[in-house]
């Protein structure tokens, strides 16, 4: 039977993993799809010793793939949003189906790409773009399609989780662990995307659209990274029975959707707290199914290739199916998207962990608790470490639930107190109760 002809643009970590998985499991994949998949064309500036591409046509110009009349599917694995966007739109124009692992591309340009694909009657699949090998987009868009989704919360950046785990378990230095994550192929080309939460915000944008049927709205995601987390915070969180995870949270509050990415204290006994290293996990609470948890490798060559190849298989199976009969790009039909507003961070309500350093003088704590109380913020637990005379005193507070705006105003007043030294650390606390 005629093979499904695939072009792979980009032969880096994920590109080479994709070649290896397609070659190693060729027979099994052909049995699943009903015909073989042929890698007919590769777009790469240079070979990658991590895979064997002998006998495959190679072009240094990736646009050769977009125009190749032989290809059914173009797999975009070059990353970035400039050339990648142009490449994908050109390939669509030439009637190719698209598979991509590029969350930045989908989160920032997905609405336009889907419009172009719809007009041309081709599919765009991007399972690898969120939580690497975990089939989370298929779970949301298909497996849980019966549900009204209440919220989604996940550890969706492998590099960040790897750094936090190594800092906590081995006391390692932030910068040193980041270098290791880069060497292992987990980090983005620009690793500030990982440590400042941008990569997780891209992924949350995509998850929320498929969960709630809202357009992709990357610019509305509240985003904080892990670069300010210190060993002191990790220890203090542990003292109170929590661990610090970098979470993406999308919640339907009934008045709008919360879209936020930030470090979060979660109780040590919840399952997400045990997700360590480069592993990712996503919790989804649906009204019919209840809480569900999806776990697996969020980055790395073959885990990501697993999702890329699954998309190639899905598109390969559907090549002859009428476009309108396929699962819509975001799981909801384009003309049935919701206009539910995205809420600002000031409207979010949660508990907080506050850590600050103060001068050892009488009355400082009384001033802090008065400011909190004036804003209606009650303290659930407090910890003040003994230090030598004249040393700054670390103070850590855990509060009850309060609106973000009240906490922000209180912290502005506390920061203005003369006895309060350096920046105040504020981390949100979530119990993840379904
Ligand atoms: N590395 C990972 O664990 C994961 C990566 N992703 C995404 O997959 C995509 C690829 O990531 P990696 O493989 O890690 O990156 P990479 O940097 O290892 O590979 C990208 C490759 O594309 C090549 N390239 C870039 N522009 C090109 C052009 N114009 N023409 C020809 N070749 C070009 C580069 O030389 C490089 O070999 C990115 O969008 C990334 O966000 C998604 C999930 C996990
Ligand atoms: N840099 C990303 C790669 C996968 O999406 C991560 O670390 O999660
Ligand atoms: Na995935």
UniProtKB/TrEMBL annotation:
GO terms for biological process: methionine biosynthetic process; threonine biosynthetic process. Pathway: Amino-acid biosynthesis; L-threonine biosynthesis; L-threonine from L-aspartate: step 3/5; Amino-acid biosynthesis; L-methionine biosynthesis via de novo pathway; L-homoserine from L-aspartate: step 3/3. NADPH binds at residue 103. InterPro entries: ACT-like_dom_sf, ACT_dom, Asp/hSer_DH_NAD-bd, HDH, HDH_cat, HDH_CS, NAD(P)-bd_dom_sf. GO terms for molecular function: homoserine dehydrogenase activity; NADP binding. PROSITE patterns: ACT, HOMOSER_DHGENASE. The active site is at 203 (proton donor). It catalyses: L-homoserine + NAD(+) = L-aspartate 4-semialdehyde + NADH + H(+). Keywords: Amino-acid biosynthesis, Methionine biosynthesis, NADP, Oxidoreductase, Threonine biosynthesis. PANTHER family: HOMOSERINE DEHYDROGENASE. This is Homoserine dehydrogenase.
